[in-house]
Model the fold of this input.
Amino acid sequence: MLEVRHLRKTFGSLVAVDDVSFSVLPGRLTGLLGPNGAGKTTSVSIIAGLLTPERGDVLVGGRALSGDTDPGKRRIGLVPQDVALYDELTARDNLRFFGALYDMSGTALDHAMHAALTLVGLADRARDRVKTFSGGMKRRLNLAAGLLHDPDILLLDEPTVGVDPQSRNAIFENLEELKRRGKALLYTTHYMEEAERLADRIVVIDRGRVVADDTLEGLHATVSPGSSGSAKDGAVSLESVFLTLTGRSLRD
Amino acid sequence: MRITALVALVRKDLQLFFSDRRSVIVSFAVPIVIGAFIGSLTNEMGNNSNKPLRVKVAFADLDASAVSKALVADAQADTNLDVSVADADAARLQVQKGTVVAAVIVPKDFGDSASRAFFQGSSVQKPELTVLVDPSRAVEAGMVRGILAQHVMQTVAQSAFSGQSLAKLADRGLAEIDKSNMPPDQKRLLREMLNGVQRFYSQNPSASRGRGAGGLFSLPYTVREEEVTAGKRVPYNGYAHAFSGMGIQFLLFAMLNAGIELLLERQRGLWKRLRSAPISRYGLLAAKWASGTIISLMTLLVSFGAAMLMFKVRIEGSVVGFLAVAIACSMMAATFGMLVAAIGRTPATARGVSSLAVLVMVMVGGAWFPTFLFPKWIQQLTVIVPVRWAVDGLDATTWRGLPFSSAVLPTLALCGFALLFGLITLTRFRWEEA
Done:
């Protein structure tokens, strides 16, 4: 569904991503893990069309995206790291606006808004202004805005930052439902337990390069039981795998 | 770009604008309040057909002669002056306190000395009339000097040409002729003339006591003043200029805020969501420009609408010209807001710098004070300030009552500024969202 090939992007002398390649399949969630500044958000931004890569391609359904108005962008939904909503507008008005950007209108838009709000459990707050929402509700509405136009691919850039366990769990359930519906999900996070729970495949990126691309089991196999990265019972945690792959030095 | 998306973008900006009570008040209510205040001041100063502007002047008459008394009386009768009489120290104190614009000290022996100096020019010492002025009111002080010169000339001339003065002058002239070395035939001619004057006043004693020829001495013209506005029966309405100035100022502030909002959208990640949709980057800017133009135009039209309803401001000239200037001004303001977003790095720094830019533009552009008050070089410089063209265009089509042709140049200039700001925005706008 989504294929990323040999992406390279620099900002001045800083190489943000270099030869990054991976793919995301329908009905699967790919976790994109990496320390701060590893190139996760840059990769997502390139896929969403916010940045132009110096090299490489983003293929959606086997076709490379080109330009701002490429119709292939309709197949991608973005849930940015920030809560990208208009606080002064109601939940409905926010969704109506974001739907119109994808040429949605009339009954089809009304149905899509209702479905998205129901999925994230905010149907009864549709007419309330976003500024009256809690942090968790805003995060869920942020997710609803990204999937309103029924994209095949959903890019989720740390969508659970700053939310309580209840809202986080609700978001996880939403994502599992989307997987069941056949959506291809790319999920960036710092939280290893989120990746362990949700991801079918994990791509670890560090210093702009992909250092691992495997299933959770496959990654566990890269760290041998009893090594410094294993737990007392001999099981290997994803965090220890991550630290083994990316090192223990600080990345502020 | 699809029309659904464009309409949605414009509608969203309008929704956000109207949902922000502060923006609405700043854009619609504040210009009306300030315009009304400034308009009331300029109307008071400008509309002299009902109530003339009277400059306060104090006179200290140390001479107390017939001439000096006539001078004070003439000044008191002048409709341009509000004359009070005081002693010299009190008059000086009044100027110092600012209660009068100027004080005139008439010295002792002024009447006689001035009459003598009138005929004998530089050969005698002229009396010194002291005028104390308030330096902060130079324009009014200049007006006082001009009016004073007129009254002094009139009263001194009346005295100098009176019968008694002329008889005395003839006596002095005959004595001078006897002492002089001029040729005998010239002496004879002058004696005959001066003896004729003496005979006239000895045979007509009433003439020597009257004002003589002096009564006939006055300015050789009268002045008919006419306000040149839209028409003969259309008085100057100071509110028209005040409301156009304030309307322009606050639509610029509204668009400055729109630019800051765009920076905030970027900061809050909203711009990422917009850019991820299949919409061209130019389409996004075009929508911003369209919504900005609509908000600006509403600001200006609401401001003028209030002026029309409350203060009887009328578009005395071309309505089409007025609309052309208003639309061009709104387009310019909308691109100015986008320029703020393109050049500004953070909302805080952009707000500080662009607020200063707006204040300078409205100040030198004539939105606050008429540009003629500025030095010549600033007046010439204001052609590069869009506000100046907007003010000129709106003045021309409202109270000046000029035809459409008077709006063409301001409209073109404002469109030119809109184009310039738009081009800079396109080249400087940061499109990449990391």
